[in-house]
Amino acid sequence: MAADFEYIVIGRGMMGAAAARHLTLEGKRVGLIGPDEPADRVAHQGVFASHYDEARITRTFDDNMVWSQLASRSIERYAALEGESGISFFTEAGCLFSTLRPGAEGYMARAVAVSDRRGLDVEVIAPEALPARFPHMRFPKDHYGYYEKRNAGHVNPRALVKAQALMAERQGAAIIAETAVSVMEADGRVEVRTAEGRCHTAARVLVAAGGFTNICSLLPAPVDMRATARTIVFFELDAARQAIFSAMPSTVVFAERDEDLVYILPPVRYPDGKTYLKIGGDSEKAAFDALGAIGDWFRSDGDLDEAAKLQRIAVSLMPDLDGVPTTSGACIASFTRTTYPYVGFTRSPNVAVLTGGNFVAAKCSDELGRLGARLLVDGGLSDGDFAAELAPQYLSS
């Protein structure tokens, strides 16, 4: 019996939508399966996605050569995708790292080394010059700035996914607004069954379900990845404060320990018509392995103690935020054992996985989607596409 599609991609998020678009660029018959964003987050009882937001940092400055190159490959295609789709998603606001002078080890030492090796255009700003360059900030004492002005800033993840899916559909993909609940091989094809009671078939399937990848029997064996809770805080800016922060870059501020960093997104207008400045951190307090627990987290306002901590840090760094109304939200970050995304086949040559953003993959999601497409079409990745680094690791079944 003939399959409905050559390829099915499960997951209409940043990686999955990109993979579908790249597959259709080669004229493949593609089905892209995943639910729409819920209209009511609190009442929704199904799966969620972490791209339900308006801003993610993008940059090539990174402490890892592979991640830096993945970002560069994606960023150089932003303009073409915006032009073809008619959807703007990239704001070149620049990206600033604030830190004590890097020592011989640590994130910033590695990032500077990668920047030097790649010849990235990253300006080093001395502590005494930072306040004049970025007057909205009160930097920690003796902090240096590492400023990537070009090809850096932030992307709108909702808009980026919309652009990817629109182009995939224009190029022949079928967008299937359903929730996959199982993937099984039968009669020489792969069957994807959905919560809506339908069955879709393909020669090969790519599971790109983010923090939900290990849920609902989508893979023959779970990948070695943890889906962890993250809390974010939004500062609602009035017109006067929007003016104060209007020229700020995306910003990452390091504390004494690398894991105590915070990241800050410039003012962005959200669907409710209000403008918010967003701050988040890298604190991990919970991990999830069940659908119900992940759903409960997405329906919440995050960890309120963590939100209060982030609010205090934000005001200490940006005193003009004092007294600004705040709200908090919940997100999921997926971390792999290797610290790289997983792009590879399962024990089945017809079921592959594309997942593991490791908290930094939004900026390079287009390239990761391209690699997922290459995997399905070619049966594997090349060394130039980081085959060894991106090889999935699995938990025992």
* Low-pLDDT segments: none
Shape, per Cα inertia axes: globular
Largest sheet: 9 strands, mixed
Q: What structural class do the secondary elements suggest?
A: alpha+beta
What CATH calls the topology of the largest domain is D-Amino Acid Oxidase, Chain A, domain 2
CATH class of the largest domain: Alpha Beta
Strand portion: 25-35%
Helical content band: 25-40%
Whole-angstrom Rg: 21 Å
By DSSP (H or I, 4+ residues per run), the number of helices equals 9
Total discrete domains: 2
Number of strands: 20
User: Which CATH architecture of the largest domain is right?
Assistant: 2-Layer Sandwich
What pattern of helices and strands is seen along the backbone? EHEEHEEHEHEEHEEEEEHEEEEHHEEEH
Identify the CATH homologous superfamily of the largest domain.
D-Amino Acid Oxidase, subunit A, domain 2
Mean pLDDT: 95
Ends distance: 30 Å
Pfam families: DAO
Protein name: FAD-binding oxidoreductase
Cofactor: FAD
Organism: Rhizobium terricola
Identify the notable features of this structure and list them briefly.
single chain; 397 residues; alpha+beta; FAD/NAD(P)-binding domain; D-Amino Acid Oxidase, Chain A, domain 2; 2 domains; eight-stranded mixed β-sheet; 20 strands; globular
Overview of the structural elements:
The protein has nine helices and 20 strands. With 397 residues, the protein is of the alpha+beta class. It folds into two domains: 5-52 and 157-225 and 337-385, FAD/NAD(P)-binding domain; 92-154 and 227-336, D-Amino Acid Oxidase, subunit A, domain 2 (D-Amino Acid Oxidase, Chain A, domain 2, 2-Layer Sandwich), CATH 3.30.9.10. The strands form three sheets. Strands 5, 6, 7, 13, 14, 15, 16, 17 and 18 form a nine-stranded mixed β-sheet that branches. Strands 1, 2, 9, 10, 11, 12, 19 and 20 form an eight-stranded mixed β-sheet that branches. Strand 14 (250-253) and strand 15 (262-269) form a beta hairpin. Helix 2 (65-85) crosses helix 5 (157-170). It is globular. InterPro entries: FAD-dep_OxRdtase, FAD/NAD-bd_sf, MTOX. It comes from Rhizobium terricola. GO terms for molecular function: flavin adenine dinucleotide binding; sarcosine oxidase activity. Keywords: FAD, Flavoprotein, Oxidoreductase.
